[in-house]
Design a protein that fits this description.
Elements lengths: L1 H12 L10 E5 L5 H9 L4 E4 L2 H7 L8 E4 L17 E5 L2 H13 L4 E7 L11 H12 L4 E8 L7 H22 L3 E3 L6 H7 L3 E4 L1 H4 L4
Parallel strand pairs: 1-2, 1-8, 2-3, 3-4, 4-5, 5-6, 6-7
Helix pairs in contact: 6-7
């Protein structure tokens, strides 16, 4: 099942987005057994992501390598230590304090950690920078030697209104493009199992897909 599901999605995204960019598929592996994750990696999945730092810590030693390991959940500062030097990309950096902690621990380990700044797209969402906060956060991040901001990440609201989803996605892409050159962006992570096609159409170049690859979580 996993191999077949993976093949379908990889086929869907093989032509990239309307901006001529390759779309990277990240498998969201929250609560998924390592056996299933390794099956997906064997079938060609090159990027996987956890939502919980403890789960990342437990699974990291037994997940098939090489693979790009991402973190996409809300991250507490006291759990940053589990990720540094192991995580290819921390996507959910939602405060300057968290950015500082990642920077500090990266410098202590003599590494540079790739991050995305999480953008809050609506009132119902608890985490992320507002559009008005982004520029100052990006400017500050640029001064840090232990982190490298690759771009932006966001979660779309839980709605079936495709027009709303597309407009929100398009708006985020516009903001991404506004800062792309100045800050050297390469990555806009937007879109999950229920909305990744809309996100790609609006310009996302990284999607985080769980159930469409692995089936329902239990």
């Amino acid at each position: 099942m996993v191999k077949e599901n993976l093949e379908v999605i990889l086929k869907e995204i093989e032509n990239g987005n309307p901006y001529g960019e390759k779309v990277t598929l990240v498998g969201a592996t929250k609560f998924m057994p390592v056996e299933l994750i390794n099956e997906a990696i064997s079938a060609g999945l090159k990027d996987i992501a956890e939502n919980r730092a403890q789960e990342f810590k437990d699974k990291f030693p037994i997940v098939t390598k090489p693979v790009n390991y991402h973190f996409i959940g809300h991250l507490q500062k006291n759990k940053v230590k589990y990720l540094i030097g192991k995580c290819y990309l921390i996507q959910s950096v939602d405060t300057v304090d968290l950015l500082d902690e990642i920077n500090k621990q990266s410098l202590n380990k003599n590494v540079v950690t790739n991050v995305l700044l999480e953008v809050n797209l609506g009132e119902e969402q608890k985490h992320g920078f507002s559009f008005t906060e982004l520029e100052s956060a990006l400017t500050y991040a640029k001064s840090l030697n232990g982190v490298k901001v690759l771009g932006l990440m966001a979660m779309l609201p839980d709605t079936s209104d495709e027009t709303v989803l597309f407009e929100l996605s398009k708006n985020l892409r516009s903001v991404y493009d506004e800062f792309k050159v100045e800050f050297g962006f390469t990555t806009l992570s937007l879109g999950m199992s229920n909305d990744y096609k809309i996100a790609i159409k609006a310009g996302s170049n990284m999607i985080r897909v769980g159930s469409k690859i692995f089936g329902k979580r239990y």
